[in-house]
Amino acid sequence: MASTSSERPSSSCSISRLHYDVFISFRGEDTRYDFTNHLYTALLGAGIFAFRDGENLQRGETIDSELTKAIEGFQGQIVLPVFYHVDPSDVRNHTGPFAINIAHGPSVNDERIQKWRDALRLVGHLAGWHLNQRDLVGMESSGKEMMDLVNKRLKDVLFIGIWGVGGVGKTTLAEIIYCKISQGFYDKSFIYFKHDTETGNLVSYQNEVLKHIFKREFDITCIYKGKQIIKKMLCGRKVLIALDNVSEKGQLDAIVGSHDWFGQGSIIIITSEDKQLLVTHDVDDIYEVKPLDNSKALELFSWNAFKQAHPENDFVDLSNDFVKHAQGLSLALECFGSFLHNKEIDVWKSYLCELEENSEGEILTKLEIIYKRILDRNVKELFLDIAFFFKGMDKNRVANILNDPSYLANLAFLPNNSLITIFQGKL
Question: How far apart are CA 403 and CA 19, in angstroms?
């Protein structure tokens, strides 16, 4: 977990606060020499002076007071948790390995246990990044092939399209590539289009792209004027822009009209179900995301249903049946697996019967069965609100708009069941 100072410390602060820009707090030798080391090196390479916590704090010792203060937002600090091969819901709810560690750890007093529980609950509710093995299943080869296209860099400005059917993993692949190459860009923006975007609403996306890049608010009210501003302000800048779920030519024309809108070295990533749309916009390369083969599909399903790479012995045949119904689509595999996690075998059989009755139906019909089964009225309403109004919006901003005390609890339920994703704090 990294905490960054949002303002310069006063002269009364300690030497360490004056000296370091970022504190990295982590646990586990496997992360020290792998993920944490890469993060530390990348921060230094970007000119950010980072301090690695965990060097002196051994397992079972009292929580670092600096980390506790950072979690509480002490003196303007921002905390950015990275859940590396850890489920945030386990952190929040003290389940899985966290329940075992607390229940069977060293003998400690109740007050100390409560401090750990409170700290875990705080961290588990913070917006951050969830990196898990299941996120990469089936994406290894796609990611490598996409990076090969990016690295060709035959032109000064690269437009690259990601095409495939709905639910196949286009957004996930775009996010992976965006994260891989984003460290080479100071100016960047990731935009998620809603399915019902109207022409009049495109100015809000123009404003959002410019806000991401220039770190200030814009007040564009006319699409044509917005095009002029984007071209004028970005034509000399090396930018990374990702546009997800593009369905209309007007969306591209409004934000990434042509190659000459951007500076040398810029990369524009576009995901769409419409290949002709990408061809018409003169993208340089189009990468097709194909459904997972049976082996990878079973592995992805298993990570969601069993939190491991393969099914439990009593569930092998049933797992293969669900994989067949998912048709290789990542979204369906994640939804099926998440719904069935920790369910009794009778529930599996009952749900499979429902799917068999709809065996000729579209995959969306099958996913609707999950939607009806697992969501209560309040969660359903939140799910629909996100789908129609809040997709791509910061989750904290949505909290302020809804002003609903049950928002966080309901929101936590949706990604845990693979019904939505939260990427860099955005829904």
Answer: 39
